[in-house]
Fold each of these.
Amino acid sequence: MIERFSHSSLETFKKCPVQFKIRYLDKVLKPDESIEAFLGKRLHETVEYLYNTVGENGTPMLDIVMDKFQEYWESSWHNRIGIVRWREYRAEDYYALGEKCLAKFYRQYKPFDEPAVGNELELVFHLDDSKNYKIKGILDRVDHDGSGKWEIHDYKSGKRALTQGAANRDTQLALYQIGLEKKFDNVNEVELVWHFLQHGIEMRSRRTKEELKLLSENIKTRIDNIRTAIADKHDFPAKESILCNWCYYWDECPAKYRPNPFIRKY
Ligand code: SF4
């Protein structure tokens, strides 16, 4: 029985049920990760460091931020990082991309005086009073102006930026809004903000109460479907797609049952 879900686990079930089974039911944990995921984590850590430092010691110089990025990169590096696009890019290219993202972000937001009240803020909440639908989320950054106006920020390090329409349909930050409204008083308005670090652009969106209610019901239905599949010992089908290239579960996947040939360890 899974008691707690995350947006990521729910999306995994939607995209590939067998991957969900391998990761969340069979609990096959692997140290492997893609270079894109590795880069994303180091960028998140560096931006978190930036906002924490501003709060304590004032705005750090860009050089200091870059040094921190290098420190996080080098101290976290391990030998299970895969580069799918190894014909075009090396690890150094991803490192340089990270530096470019940070330089853009720094120029855009210096002196970082947004009213950040949480970095990497963990929220655990129930979707309704039954307490059957428990969700955990980690919010990259939360701003609050002190009088009920909140913003939920998300840093995206991938190549693609959302269109306004896609941002308006996105469920991750909207789910976090549900949690934020349950956890804090005086939430009068919430804006959802994505930062597309490669492009140096941001996208903003808002949700109505009706949209949040509908999302909550949809998520509950998905959780019910997962629980039914588990209880009835249903098959968790493999949904093959381009995403298989980045998947580390080929050895366990019934559609593959062989090592992933697209991943080259660096
Ligand atoms: S290899 Fe593809 S089909 Fe198999 S678990 Fe991974 S994503 Fe799913």
Amino acid sequence: MKLVRTDIVLLISMLVAVSFATIATAQPHPIPLMDGLAHTGVPSCATAGCHGDQVTGDGAGPIVGQNEYFQWRSPTEKGAHSRAYEVLLTPHAKRIANNLGIGAAQKAAECLDCHADNVTPEQRSQRFQISDGVGCEACHGGAQNWLAFHRIGAGHEKNIEAGLYPTEDPVARARLCFGCHLGSSFENQFVNHRIMGAGHPRLKFELDLYTTVQQHHRVDDDYRQRKTVAPGAQVWAVGQALGLERTLELLLDDETGRSGVFPELVFFDCHSCHQPISNGVADLDWRPNPGRSIGPGMPILNDANLIMLQAAMRVIDPGLAERLESEGRSLHMASLHGGSQFRTSAETLRSIATDAANSIMTADLADAAVIRALLLEIVSTEQSSRYTNYAAAEQALFAVQRLSAALQLQGPRLTNSIEKASRAAQSPYAYNQNAFKAALNDISRQIGR
Ligand code: HEC
Ligand code: HEC
Ligand code: HEC
Ligand code: HEC
């Protein structure tokens, strides 16, 4: 079911009428696109003395850096959100929009719901400009009720009550980022295979890495006093669990899960269909995967998050790892048969993913021994034989990079092995699983000592 803004506002007002106390605890914070609040616009955050302070442009503000606006506008990848609208004016975007026949990309809700802060016209205050792209309030929430007091030390709780989005909480953050980087059932936050076919790039995402890349704030003593800082390994693991949960939600949803008589192709591994056809024995590429008993010649559900989560849970919660293993197999098998068995299996797996997220959020993932065990599991021979598909290798590489950074592992040999693994998985069309496995095995030998 597609959820549109009016439904949500109605739902919230009904719940408020029933009981204000229960909704505060039972309802997750609405994501900024759906918060119903006035969005005051990037210029209202970016003034001197606030987050666009020229004088302390080096990030030396007493509490927050006060240079967040300049960081958000960085010409590097970190500043991508500030250019998300401009991207819609490029020949690439025009081509996509033409192929889809939706008119100008920069006017189409199908694009703006992810490439800008596309709240309703009534929610746009005087200084709001859609051309600011993914602005501050697209993540931090409409500032209507907190703009005036959040800077005079009202306290984080008060700000959150007034509609500031809890971006520091990894679970809330995942729900926010996934809307645009994986998809949601809100309005038009979904890139289906038709949009991909029209030329949209494949979406890839890993919560911990992407949080780090776009980081525009300073984590210092007073930040730690104000907020709980989740360890990177926890952010990584919960991102895998919630990524699986979100994917299955969208797959189970009739609006997003199907496309005519076909299942929606975007949930399948792109390169199980898009690859060169082999002409002889030498370049035959199919190989079995120990996590699923699907033979050759079938499209495969994209199970990259599942594969990573299985590894994480073998360390964090072995009982849940077993449930993931058997239900993962069932889902793959059921994908060959379809029908109600497929639905039941997807629903069960989704609820296991939710349990896994809860388990991860209560585990101690700041413990170096646990992080090391996670890394060793990711690069183990048993696990790397599951990286038959490019999407899984891509996630494994993200994990190796983030977990070795969390352990502050360094050295030319390790760098060299990680580079070898990156080269083996550089291009989806030339992914070499044997070379990838060999590089991970090198890493395993180095950290296993
Ligand atoms: C579900 C959210 C979502 C929707 C809907 C969406 N996009 Fe995107 N788009 C993204 C994300 C995220 C990226 C960045 C992909 C990456 O690099 O991982 C992106 C990247 C792009 C790029 C490449 C940008 C570059 O820097 O090379 C273009 C062009 C683009 N989108 C155009 C469009 C158009 C046109 C539409 C509407 C038909 C659209 N997008 C709809 C999320 C979305
Ligand atoms: C893509 C989402 C996103 C966008 C866009 C974004 N932020 Fe953030 N911001 C975050 C996340 C995630 C954090 C880190 C977690 C936290 O402290 O809440 C953060 C942290 C911050 C902090 C640190 C708060 C503290 O307690 O020290 C400030 C200040 C901030 N952002 C201001 C801005 C401003 C100003 C803009 C616009 C120019 C902006 N952000 C745009 C996601 C975003
Ligand atoms: C409203 C939609 C939206 C939200 C919410 C959002 N992003 Fe993005 N993000 C985009 C789009 C669109 C792009 C691509 C823009 C471009 O190509 O310039 C992007 C690009 C990025 C990039 C640059 C790398 C790349 O692939 O282009 C990073 C890193 C990133 N986002 C991280 C995050 C994180 C972390 C969160 C959650 C805190 C988040 N984003 C939330 C829409 C969003
Ligand atoms: C079940 C098989 C299947 C899967 C899985 C699949 N596709 Fe496709 N794809 C197709 C078919 C069929 C076409 C249409 C080919 C045609 O029009 O000639 C297509 C067309 C495309 C095109 C247009 C190619 C062109 O240049 O004409 C792109 C781009 C594309 N897909 C991207 C993706 C991405 C990204 C994914 C993964 C998220 C994906 N596909 C998953 C079968 C698949």
